[in-house]
Write a structure and sequence with these properties.
By secondary structure, the chain is of the alpha/beta class. It has 18 helices and 10 strands. Helix content is 45%, strand content 9%. Strands 2, 3, 4, 5, 6, 7, 8 and 10 form an 8-stranded mixed β-sheet that branches. This is Protein SCAI isoform X3.
């Protein structure tokens, strides 16, 4: 029978089902492909387009569920094609998370990616002699791993890495492709990313405890009666990464990963409430305050960085703060300078030209022109027209100590040490110690104390003590008579309050540690904090010694640091 005759035998209703499915499938692909044409910056232009894309995928997903038998028989729907639809929905949720910083969308992405694996949608792909289908499967694994990393589901990550490794081996063996090196690099990157934390917390059975560093209800010290602080709230953050040789995965360095988690609340598990994809109705949205919106910029050029900065600045609501986090290689001034202006102290390199990177510092001694992609303090001056909170983790962070507040708006810069004691320097690939203190201060404290593992019970005891230290640091800052008011203006926001208290803890710890003896080993800030009331306060020093005693490492700290200068 001719194919035309076969088609005539198909009942009209079933033919319409196939036609409707093909229409929805084509429409979904068209809308999905259009997502990459949307501007990456700006928070409003993309929402209606995303909404339309979600709607079509919702209809497509339901349609294939309701008409699976007809589509199997008349269209020849394969399981990997269902997997492709589910994978696209997972990608939509992940990109919606990136656009909104709402962590509950990560759970939605996880539920779809997880369903693909549980239902073995891609299991038959290996039987087809089509390498492009296997690549779809490998990319699905890579995307699933990213979502699991962001949700701290490390057990799942380890299983996925093993499965991905087997899939890559089978793929390269069968097809002898040129992209074998690239896929092996993906495996190496994620393996290094998993191992980045310098300290393991262990259960009694020696299994690893997964610790989360997002903001919890009890995370930030509460504002107490009598604390007079500003009402500003953190609305937008740019997280910029360009550290030479630092572990990364999927355009996310370890430092960027840690900082983005420090600016998010623990995700709510919406997966249990929702069994279909789609944008939540406003009534279903979490009632708690939203996370600040974030842009994650890996190795941005100067023009890209300025475009995103301008977009954030333009859309910043009233009484809100813009945070800029820079984790990047230092660019030092070339020779002597006649002036001491905002472009004379160097800055940080946000994008590396391959031929000039050699080690951490960029010196251009024989060239008169300045590095194009170096972000100087002066480059940020226009944005100080609104409240600005800057964190610089770099070997030339001190360039930002020479800031000038031209517009009188609240402005604070937290600056990393520019060098670490030799014993700690070889750990820089696994992320910066300064950023680790801002993300997970207890793990950082254990690391500088020479500890690499700890039992869960002791970890929880130390965390509780650290919360007490944070409460006391909050008291020190808000009761200080000589502190610059900019710090207090930012102190009303939970995220910024936690970053400020962790910064003080980091600075006090390093000043008391016997290995940190040079000035360049200490964090600094603009404006400067009153040392005697904050980072060198005897009450705080006593607390740090007590924490060291709990861990039996008191001997590596000075008992009375001020006597040792």
């Amino acid at each position: 029978m001719s194919s035309g005759g076969a088609e005539d035998d198909i009942p009209q209703g079933e033919r319409k089902t196939v036609t409707d499915f093909c229409y929805l499938l084509d429409k979904s692909k068209q809308l999905f492909n259009g997502l990459r044409d949307l501007p990456q910056y700006g928070q409003k232009q993309w929402q209606s387009y995303f909404g339309r894309t979600f709607d079509v995928y919702t209809k497509l997903w339901k349609f294939q569920q309701q008409h699976r038998q007809v589509l199997d028989n008349r269209y020849g729907l394969k399981r990997w094609q269902i997997g492709e639809i589910a994978s696209k929905i997972g990608q939509l949720y992940y990109h919606y998370y990136l656009r909104t910083s709402e962590t509950s969308y990560l759970n939605e992405a996880f539920s779809f990616y997880s369903a693909i694996r549980q239902r073995s949608y891609y299991s038959q792909v290996n039987k087809e002699d089509r390498p492009e289908l296997v690549v779809k499967k490998l990319r699905y694994y890579a995307r699933f791993i990213v979502v699991c990393l962001l949700l701290n589901k490390m057990d799942v990550v380890k299983d996925l890495v093993k499965e991905l490794s087997d899939e890559i081996e089978d793929y390269t063996h069968r097809f002898n492709t040129e992209d074998q090196v690239e896929w092996n690099l993906v495996l190496q990157e994620v393996a290094a990313f998993i191992e980045a934390d310098p300290v393991m917390v262990l259960n009694d059975d020696n299994t690893i405890v997964i610790t989360s560093n997002r903001l919890t209800e009890t995370g930030a010290p509460l504002l107490e009666q009598g604390m007079i602080v500003g009402q500003l709230s953190l609305a937008d953050a740019l997280i910029i990464g360009n550290c030479n040789n630092q572990v990364k995965f999927s355009e996310l360095t370890v430092d960027m990963f840690r900082m983005l988690q420090a600016l998010e609340r623990e995700p709510m598990n919406l997966a249990s409430q929702m069994n279909k994809p789609g944008i939540q109705e406003s009534a279903d949205k979490p009632t708690r305050r939203e996370n600040p919106h974030k842009y994650l910029l890996y190795k941005p050029t100067f023009s890209q960085l300025y475009t995103f900065l301008a977009a954030s600045f333009k859309e910043l609501p009233a009484n809100s703060v813009l945070l800029i986090y820079l984790s990047a290689t230092g660019v030092f001034p070339t020779g002597r300078s006649d002036g001491e202006g905002p472009y004379d102290f160097g800055g940080v390199l946000t994008n590396s030209n391959r031929d000039i990177i050699n080690g951490d510092a960029i010196h251009k001694r024989n060239q008169s022109h300045k590095e194009m992609h170096c972000l100087h303090p002066g480059d940020l001056y226009p944005f100080t027209r609104k409240p600005l909170f800057i964190i610089v983790d770099s070997s030339n962070s001190v360039a930002y100590k020479n800031f000038t507040n031209l517009f009188g708006q609240p402005l604070v810069c937290l600056l990393s040490p520019t060098a670490y004691p030799k014993a700690l320097q070889d750990q820089s690939q696994r992320g910066s110690l300064f950023t680790l203190f801002l993300n997970n201060p207890l793990m950082a404290f254990l690391f500088v104390s020479g500890l690499s593992s700890m039992r869960r019970g002791l970890w929880e005891k130390c965390q509780e003590y650290l919360r007490k230290i944070n409460r006391d640091i909050a008291q020190l800052l808000t009761h200080s008579r000589s502190i610059d008011q900019a710090f207090l203006q930012f102190f009303g926001d939970e995220f910024l309050r936690l970053l400020l208290t962790r910064f003080v803890f980091c600075s006090a710890t390093m000043r008391m540690h016997k290995a940190f003896r040079e000035t360049r080993n200490y964090p600094e800030s603009y404006p400067q904090l009153p040392r005697d009331e904050t980072v060198e306060n005897p009450h705080l020093q006593k607390h740090i010694l007590e924490l060291a005693s709990i861990l039996d490492v008191r001997n590596i700290f000075f008992e009375n640091p001020m006597d040792d200068y």
